[in-house]
């Protein structure tokens, strides 16, 4: 703890990153050192906050949602306390998207090393927003793959996959959406802690958030469209199956009937009215001709209906 | 009644909770003691109000909707009169979500015992908002269960269950939605009764309300998506059933026809043209071969169509 | 006419209610007595106005839509001229929802008898808004009935009834919606004719209008949901019908084929290859066994597919 | 041209109506006489503008869309230059909805003859807005007719007609929608050319535009609803057809099978096991009984399923 | 580089167009000459910006999206730096829609040669917006073609084509939409670089963008409508196919059954109960009559159902 006090004298900005905040003493200690507002501290530790900005006297309290890992859609809350000369962050779990920022600090590259606290906060928030792009790219790839499948050979599993994709996009939208208001509020509210220049950088974050929302919405509409295409091609397939059944049944059922008639056993000897055809010289060819005519007529009807294409 | 007058002298804040307001005298008595505005008092007793905030000179009148019990979606109106040193609440029925607040008051834990009336009102409103979460969790569980069913083995009853779930979410949305405006108005309108600090707490209530709306909307979209999945899998099943029917019928109908033909009774003795096949040395094997060829050809056609997968 | 002039001296507020305005002289006479603006007077008589508020110098002109009768969805225009000491209303037809207000005036109960013109106008507008609730209740009852039918035993007529219900709700929404703006404008615009106290009452009308819109929207979404449920249960029924057809056809078509084969008349005396089965000692039992095996195999296949549940 | 200059001295307002603006000289001449802004003049002649209001120093430039003819949905651009003492209009084609206004001017009835330029412009704009009502009435009639057809006897052509109706309504909406902003801007922007009284008249135009939008939206929702009804009744019909097929096939296929069995030619003389039924004293009645029992059982099953209603 | 410095002295406005910005030196050189803000320069080179306007002290930074080629829907980023006396543009690829502007500059026609930098920027932005119209026209043509196909003879491929069309329109909407805000911001924000007159011109660009959005939305709704029409006509076709199958099967299955019955081989010599019909004098005509009666009755039933139309 005393180290932190010391560091605050030596560096332009101190960034304290608290992960898996189980230790209540540590947290209250940090609260004392940096003068963190108790209500905000409660929010920081309570992990079901919505992304937001809250102004306290000499402090900004920001809650953002970070994706757990590359391409995942599980989110993790990150709370920021931004004050003169310090940034304190609280993360739920180990593993984050800040490695890049840490590298830049370690190597001392870029302006991050000498920057004031607002720039440090921007760099971290920017890393969080950028962390959403890989997840969206993955969704985009899935969508493209499903598009190919659905159009060429729709399978029952496709609809489930599309449903899962839509659900993921819904969750991403729910995570991304409030960040728009968050950045808007940071840019617009002119808090003294946020310098005019950092505001220019935050404008970029805002633009990225809007872009993320754009992509999510486009993907969602495409996925909805694909469900329609899927339903339609299932219908078309059913149509095709039924057409084959109908053609085969329609042609052969009358033929079978004719054959059945001449398979009846009426006693020709009792009366000349009983099935005289069976005794005709060309009875069998006549029956075959009758069948051919019936089949031909029906085929012609079916062809006229346009079912043979 | 006189008791209440006394208590007002002894405590920082008096909370009077009126349940099942049938007694008109009691109500007019309370109205006199606390100077409750008659129009607001009418609204408090009339149980079909929409959540709202109304400012009277030295009083805030707030109507909120509370869920009846854990996981239920029936709502009950709670009217609040918030004034200097007192909070009067009117509930429709016994049974509420204030037990937690009462416990804290009884045990004297937290700041609730010494707090001013605005904090007491906040604590009660917060309890109301928190009361919606279990109902939503229950809906979420139902949704997850239905998702499993619909994807693995859709049943006709699923669609009815999804319909009921959507209706419940619709009713929850209708109940939650106006609270957003309610909290927004309490935070924004700067009524002298609401201290700056309580406003910070009310911001939390507002955030929770927005979160509740988010969840309701997400669940509703998921339920709508599941209905699509359900309809689609019903269509796919129909397709499969029809394919089996078509394959069986398409193969056997021509075979039966051939068999019927050779079951005809044309008189072979009358003429050599009448069914000479019946007298061939290999007539029967020829007929069987004809049938096999026909079946084979159709199977090949069906296989080519991709219906055997 | 002179009577009206007299009355204006004797009463706090004069309410003139013009029904079936065919008499142009009467109307221009009234226009002169109360100084009604000619453009507004034209609007009042022209019966296709949208609910609105228009301010003239010392006068408010309000157009509202009233439901014709309890539970009907046909609307009738009511125009109000509200001035210092008078309210003039123009109705299209006999029969309205003001009986209640008239009763209160006749009996002299409540504040209506001594009230100023703004309160009288409020009382009438309130009666109009309250007149929508029975129509919505009727729609709600129809919806509940249809819900029961659609879920338990969907009939083709249900879809037509749902369509009519949706159309009625659409028309109700179109009628109610502009009243929201109407009341909002009366409350917000601070016209000197509307006292601060009446504004409190109008807030209630506004709340009722919002509540009406809420209910209409909820009912519309429920009706849309029921159409989905209906379509889905029709699909499920088709599935069931097709499953029965497929099971019966799939089992019996191969059996019939076998029977047909042994019904062929190939000449067994010509060659030992011709249908030797017919002469076997256990030929018939063999054929029956063959049929049983075929039927059993297909039943097993169908059972495995899960179509027998 | 000189005539126009003269007229400007003699009349309160000069209205110049340019139709089929091919003559560039004429247009530049008019531009000089009335001091028309060149950018606006370009817009007036370029016929793909969106309805809008643009203020130039001492001039208002208004573009509106007029329906070509009664009941048509093709629109034609009308550009207005409104200045002190003159209105210049540019129309694409001959034939407009201004005949009524011209009549009033010719007969000198109403205030149109002595009115200032803003009133003249209002009269023309009002005529344009009123011109949309017949087109909507025609759509309403078509919708009603289609409603009757779809509910009583849906035909494949209905869906195409509904599609065309929806497309027409879409185009009408696109044409009407920007006029709302146009009138709103004329009323709200307080341009010195528009007198306070004309603003009252323009409020009426605004109301009509809102009403038009209301009707278009209602019709569009009704048409969408009818498409659902149509799809549903097509499904119900398919269901009915399939039920008849299934009942007939389910009952007769087993019967035919039984008949086929007793049509087999197993040699009864070879063995007592071969088709002994054929030699029974009551063999034929037994077979008929078997068939009746089978048919009866299946009919009972079908009746129990509720398919015979 | 020095050339550019010279040119800045000689011309009213210098337009530098950078294509395929691989050369970092060139870019930093330009940055120095024109004093381009480094953050904006980064954005200009980073090709995934959203259309936007950003104000720097004496400079406007504008990012727009240009369509690659006539009728294509691939977009390319164009970044503008607009300052006193210069416009610097950065394009991703060769090939743009500025040829028209270049021609006007080369030929010295119009005001473009002597115009200030804001007019030059307007001319380029106008060319970008106008570049969207051919792409939309192509979509419109595709839509019309598909409409004809879907209504007259729907094919499975139509649904895929409609899906692709909807996707293209979605991407166009995503590209066009932010330009509306871009132009709105240029018109409204009153930056000193944008003269009042150029604002009038930019109003036209804004109008075009709104018009583009209108067309895209109309096309999207039409495409969605066509998918419904397609699904409906597929359903109607299935209905027709099933009706033919049902009629043929329903009529012939009972007939075949009758024929099968009289094809049974019960031994007439054993008992007078065994198939006495076979020995009747008019047995065969009786059987044919029975069949005709059955077929006639079923045809009458089917005709009554209205399935023969």
From TrEMBL, chains A, B, C, D, E:
The gene is corA. The chain crosses the membrane at residues 244-262, 282-303. Belongs to the CorA metal ion transporter (MIT) (TC 1.A.35) family. Keywords: Cell membrane, Ion transport, Magnesium, Membrane, Transmembrane, Transmembrane helix, Transport. The keyword Hydrolase does not apply. This is Magnesium transport protein CorA. It holds the Pfam family CorA. Mediates influx of magnesium ions. It is a multi-pass membrane protein. InterPro entries: CorA_cytoplasmic_dom (IPR045861), CorA_TM1_TM2 (IPR045863), Mg/Co-transport_prot_CorA (IPR004488), MgTranspt_CorA/ZnTranspt_ZntB (IPR002523). It is found in: Cell membrane; Membrane. It comes from Sulfitobacter sediminis.
